[in-house]
Amino acid sequence: MASLITCPHCGQRPKEEFAIKGAALARPAPDAPQGEWYDYVFLRTNPRGRYEEYWHHVSGCRRWLVVTRDTASHAVEDCRDAAERAPT
Amino acid sequence: MPDLIHRPALTKEPLVGERIRLAPMPEGTLLEVRGPQAELPALEAAADAAGLVIRTNGPDQWFAISGQPMLRLDLPDIFSVTDQSHGRVRIAMEGAAVDDVLAKGMAVDLFDFKIGAATTALIGHITTHIARLDRDRFELTVLRSFAESLWHDLETMSAEFLDR
């Protein structure tokens, strides 16, 4: 697990200050079929490599962030405020 | 109705050393303010008029603080204010060794932490708001129920600099 996260508001902070929600997925439309919602809630790819996750800076600025990290090398590629990023 | 008695959350004598001093600060007024960053000048003007000082606390978030109790802050409707006067406790920490003491328990790089800067970070396992008021003076703001625990951590962190 990446141990230092560069928060766009607070700078470099240890991972202990954050809570991790999980994969940052595109939210289906409210009237999307049940199967699509089932996948969104329960289905995860668990890739080896690049992964986008929602992290909450609980013990810092209390903003939701999107952290792009590598699950194999632990390298953090990007970290930005969730408000600035539309889910892909 | 009997008079309500104010009992401070942190009843500690100051800890004193040649290069460090820790003391609880008076529990006055502490308001948590949220609103758009662009309206900060309006907030600062209102706080100034009310006798409160503003400490930044992340994007669109501030604390308005004073040692005086029951101060009122009148703001435009675009802001929201939560009274935290009885919810948080402040601790003053000063002395030449203050950076060294804080660095033991906190991951913020104090070399780049300028006078007037403020942020929230973990000290040990306790979320604490820290503000540098001067080169060698910090104000730590912590949730009331964590105040004694934080004090204990700070005491341990300062131990090598204390006169005893």
From TrEMBL, chain A:
- Return the protein name: Sarcosine oxidase subunit delta
Give the top-rank taxon of the lineage listed in the UniProt record for this protein.
Answer: Bacteria
| Family matches, as InterPro entries | SoxD, SoxD_sf
